[in-house]
C-alpha cells in the first residue's frame, strides 16, 4: 500500500529494497513512457556523482528497469501537460474536477514550482506523494493570444531531476474590444476617450488626410478629437486604425470619427459609472444587467461630483403626482438608462442651447434602444414620449424600419413640473402642461442583443434605434423632454400629473437606453 498526500490509493504494491535502491534492488515493471529515472551506478564515485546531480530522461523505454527509482506521468508527452484554453473557473476547482493524470512511481516524489510559488492561474494537486496515484491539473481560461506555461522541479527519492515538468495552456484567438468605435465631435471642437482592451500588442495608425484630428495614446487609452471648429458647412470624417503588431499585423480595427456640423451634440462621454462610491472610472462597456463591477446604476440625484461638473445641463424630475418618487434616470457607461424593472418610469430634459440667436428651425435627433436582460430577454415596454419645454413646435417626426412615430400635438397636455427640474431631482409642482408632443415606439430590431452585440456598440448604429423630429421656432430657451412611459400613465385627461413610480400600465417595465442627442439647424 502507498499513500498519496490527502488520500490513500491501493493501486500498486511497492516493495522497496532495504539496501540502496540505486544499486541493489531489481524488479521488472511494465512498459513505461516518459520516465524520470536514475541509471544504475557501478562504482562508489559514480554513485556519489549521481546523488549530487541526478539524471532524468523523457523518452519511450521498453526495457527492464533494474532497481531504479522512477516517476512517470501517463500522457505527459515530452514531460509537458497540455491544458485546454477554456480552462475551469477557480470556484469549480473541486477535488473531482480538473484534468486527471495517472502517476506511476515506486518512490517518494515532490513537484515544486520553479519560481517558488504556484501561478495564480493554475494549480496542481497534490504536490507530493509516495508511489502511484492521481495528479489533478487545474487552470483558468487563458485570455492571451499566446501560449502560457509554468515549470516545476521534480524531486525523486530526495534528488532533483535535471528536466522540469511543464504545464502548458493553449492560447485564445486574438481579441480586441473598444469602448467606442464611432465618435461624434462637437462642431466647436471636442475630445473623446476610447479604451482599447486586447490580448495582443497593437499600434495606432492615424488618418494622414485628417490634419484637423489629434490622436494621443496613454497605455490602453486613446484620446481622440480636435480643438478646431468645423466651419466647412458639412460634417467631416476621419478613420483611426488600431493595428496588431508582429504575427497579428494583419488584424485591423477602425474607429470612425465625425466632427458634426451641429449646434449641439452630446454622446454622454462625460457620463460614467463609478466602480464603488469613489470616482474610479469603469472601462467595461455593457448594456445588460451588469455594466461594471460595483454600482451598476447611478441615479441622477446621486451623481458624484465628476459627473455633475461635466454635465452640460441635463435634468430629471420627480413625478408630479407622486413627488416623493424618483427620478428614475441613471447614468451608465457613456449613455443614460431610463426606468427600473418594477414599473418605475424615467425622464430627462435637455440643456437649453445658449448659442441659438433668435428663433430657428432645427432637426433634433437621438438614439433610443430597447432594454435587454443578461439572458437576452427583450422588455415589452417599447413606448416613449418626447415633448418641448419652452418655445417651439413639432412639425415632423421620423422613425426607421419597424419603429414608429406620430405627432400628438393638440391631442394631449402632459402635466410637468418645471420648477423642480434640477439635477438633484427636488420635488416641484405641476406648473405647466406640455402640449407639443410626439409618441414613439421602438421596433423589434432596435434592442441591444447580448449574443450578437456583447460590447454594446452596434445597437447605436441600428436604424431602428434612431429617431428624429423637426422643430420650428426653437430658441435659446427651448428644451426637449423625454419620458419613458406609456400614454395611459400620463393621466392627460384628468390633469393629475404622471407618476414616475407607476410608469407603465401596459407592461411590467419600460426601461430604455438613451444616447447621441443632436440638434442641427435646418
Automatic annotation (TrEMBL):
The keyword Membrane applies. The chain crosses the membrane at residues 35-55. Keywords: Membrane, Transmembrane, Transmembrane helix. Residues 208-259 form the BACON domain. It comes from Muribaculum intestinale. This is BACON domain-containing protein.
Amino acid at each position: 500500500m502507498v499513500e498519496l498526500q490527502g488520500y490513500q490509493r491501493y493501486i500498486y504494491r511497492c516493495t522497496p529494497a532495504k539496501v540502496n535502491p540505486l544499486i541493489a534492488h531489481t524488479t521488472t515493471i511494465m512498459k513505461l513512457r516518459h520516465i524520470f529515472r536514475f541509471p544504475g551506478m557501478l562504482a562508489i564515485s559514480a554513485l556519489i556523482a549521481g546523488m549530487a546531480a541526478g539524471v532524468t530522461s523523457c523518452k519511450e523505454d521498453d526495457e527492464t528497469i533494474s532497481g531504479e527509482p522512477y516517476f512517470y506521468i501517463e500522457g505527459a508527452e515530452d514531460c509537458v501537460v497540455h491544458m485546454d484554453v477554456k480552462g475551469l473557473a477557480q470556484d469549480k476547482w473541486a477535488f473531482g474536477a480538473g484534468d486527471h493524470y495517472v502517476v506511476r512511481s515506486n518512490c517518494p516524489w515532490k513537484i515544486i514550482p520553479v519560481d517558488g510559488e504556484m501561478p495564480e492561474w493554475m494549480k496542481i494537486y497534490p504536490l507530493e506523494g509516495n508511489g502511484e496515484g492521481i495528479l489533478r491539473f487545474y487552470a483558468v481560461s487563458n485570455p492571451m493570444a499566446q501560449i502560457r506555461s509554468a515549470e516545476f522541479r521534480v524531486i525523486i527519492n530526495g534528488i532533483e531531476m535535471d528536466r522540469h515538468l511543464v504545464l502548458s495552456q493553449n492560447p485564445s484567438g486574438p481579441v480586441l474590444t473598444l469602448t467606442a468605435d464611432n465618435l461624434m465631435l462637437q462642431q466647436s471642437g471636442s475630445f473623446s476617450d476610447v479604451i482599447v482592451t486586447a490580448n495582443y500588442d497593437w499600434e495606432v495608425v492615424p488618418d494622414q488626410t485628417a490634419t484637423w484630428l489629434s490622436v494621443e495614446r496613454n497605455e490602453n487609452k486613446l484620446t481622440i478629437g480636435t480643438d478646431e471648429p468645423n466651419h466647412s458647412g458639412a460634417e467631416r470624417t476621419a478613420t483611426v486604425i488600431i493595428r496588431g503588431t508582429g504575427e497579428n499585423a494583419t488584424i485591423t480595427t477602425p474607429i470612425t470619427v465625425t466632427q458634426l456640423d451641429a449646434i449641439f451634440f452630446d454622446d454622454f462621454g462625460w457620463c460614467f459609472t463609478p466602480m464603488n462610491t469613489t470616482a474610479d472610472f469603469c472601462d467595461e462597456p455593457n448594456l445588460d444587467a451588469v455594466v461594471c463591477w460595483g454600482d451598476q446604476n447611478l441615479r441622477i440625484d446621486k451623481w458624484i461630483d465628476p459627473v455633475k461638473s461635466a454635465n452640460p445641463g441635463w435634468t430629471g424630475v420627480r413625478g408630479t403626482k407622486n413627488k416623493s418618487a424618483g427620478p428614475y434616470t441613471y447614468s451608465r457607461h457613456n449613455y443614460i438608462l431610463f426606468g427600473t424593472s418594477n414599473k418605475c418610469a424615467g425622464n430627462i430634459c435637455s440643456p437649453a442651447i445658449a448659442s441659438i440667436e433668435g428663433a430657428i428651425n432645427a432637426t433634433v435627433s437621438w438614439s433610443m434602444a430597447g432594454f435587454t436582460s443578461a439572458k437576452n430577454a427583450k422588455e415589452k415596454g417599447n413606448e416613449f414620449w418626447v415633448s418641448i419645454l419652452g418655445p417651439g413646435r413639432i412639425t415632423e417626426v421620423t422613425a426607421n424600419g419597424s419603429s414608429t412615430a406620430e405627432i400628438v400635438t393638440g391631442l394631449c397636455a402632459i402635466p410637468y413640473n418645471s420648477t423642480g427640474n434640477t439635477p438633484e431631482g427636488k420635488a416641484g409642482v405641476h406648473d405647466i402642461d406640455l402640449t407639443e408632443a410626439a409618441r414613439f415606439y421602438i421596433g423589434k430590431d432596435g434592442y441591444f442583443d447580448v449574443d450578437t452585440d456583447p460590447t454594446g456598440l452596434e445597437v447605436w448604429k441600428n436604424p431602428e434605434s434612431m429617431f428624429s423630429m423637426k422643430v420650428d421656432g426653437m430658441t435659446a430657451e427651448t428644451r426637449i423632454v423625454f419620458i419613458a412611459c406609456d400614454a395611459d400613465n400620463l393621466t392627460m385627461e384628468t390633469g393629475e400629473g404622471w407618476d414616475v413610480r407607476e410608469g407603465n400600465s401596459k407592461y411590467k417595465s419600460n426601461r430604455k437606453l438613451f444616447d447621441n442627442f443632436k440638434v442641427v439647424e435646418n
